[in-house]
UniProtKB/TrEMBL annotation:
GO cellular component: cytoplasm
Entry superkingdom: Bacteria
The name this protein goes by in its record: ThiF family protein
Any GO molecular function: ubiquitin-like modifier activating enzyme activity
InterPro entries reported in the protein's UniProt record: ThiF/MoeB/HesA, ThiF_NAD_FAD-bd, Ubiquitin-activating_enz
Residue ranges annotated for the THIF-type NAD/FAD binding fold domain, each copy included: 53-247
Length: 267
């Protein structure tokens, strides 16, 4: 009787297995979407859904075997989640304590009007199942703090910052450093965005936000294009880190009011 590897060899073409053939394989051998993708990638081939990703099957396999954490599931968190679903990460942990409100509709990409009042992580889990059932999502409706950090960061390869205030970001940086985990920082405020790669122990966010005056509260709106651009850069940096490529630390500042990119490499 033919096994999955033999099926893949027979049915693949030009370095990939078509989505139609993959579905047939899943049904024939009783495989989940995740199991089927693993079989294909282990053989050095690409599932069709990923063939437009600009890397090879070995790099795609690194994504599938990675465990990522998104801390916060508001504007940035929603955009980060959507992009990871498309790219094909393996396990995704998402934490947020809040529910959706009408003022979120201008920028939070998971949100529909029918979702108002629902927990953000609940909507995130639904979206993940709809877009990419090969991704295993773990959602936690809670605040990231001393009491939740250990369990949430257990087994995580990389963390993405989608928080909305400085004290929580500084705590997140320390929590990641204590566990030797790289943090991909992202922040948006009005017409500006910021991203950085925070290596364990470097204290980059403490350096950026260390001045007392920067802790002043600022009521600034966030447009959806700023969210999308900032999240895209975070995910791009995360992919490079996961694939073992060298990258700077930043921070990199984005000015959405004009066409200029402001590079502020300080580490």
């Amino acid at each position: 009787m033919m096994n999955p590897e033999q099926w893949i060899l027979r049915e693949s073409d030009k370095g990939f297995l078509s989505f139609e053939k993959q579905i047939q394989m899943e049904k024939r051998f009783g495989l989940s979407r995740r199991e089927a993708e693993k079989f294909v990638l282990e053989m050095g081939l690409m599932p069709e859904r990923y063939i437009r990703n600009p890397w090879d099957a070995n790099a795609q396999k690194k994504l599938l075997h990675s465990t990522l954490a998104i801390v916060g599931c508001g504007a940035l968190g929603s955009a980060l989640l959507e992009q990871w679903l498309r790219l094909g990460a393996g396990v995704l942990k998402v934490m947020d304590p809040d529910v959706f409100a009408p003022s979120n509709l201008n920028r939070q990409m998971l949100l529909r009007e029918s979702d108002l009042g629902r927990p953000k992580v609940e909507v995130a889990a639904r979206r993940a199942a709809e877009v990419n059932p090969a991704l295993y999502i773990i959602t936690v409706q809670d605040v990231f703090c001393d009491g939740t950090a250990d369990e949430f960061l257990d087994g995580v390869d990389l963390v993405l910052d989608a928080l909305d205030n400085i004290p929580d970001r500084l705590f997140l940086e320390k929590a990641c450093a204590a566990r030797g985990i790289t943090l991909i920082h992202g922040a948006i405020s009005g017409w500006a965005g910021q991203v950085a790669v925070c290596r364990p122990g470097a204290g980059l966010l403490s350096f950026i936000y260390g001045r007392a005056e920067i802790h002043e509260s600022r009521a600034v709106g966030n447009p959806v294009f700023g969210v999308a651009a900032t999240a895209g850069l975070q995910v791009s940096l995360a992919c490079r880190v996961l694939m073992g490529e060298k990258t700077g630390c930043g921070p990199w500042f984005l000015d959405f009011s004009g066409p200029e990119w402001v590079d502020m490499e300080i580490f």
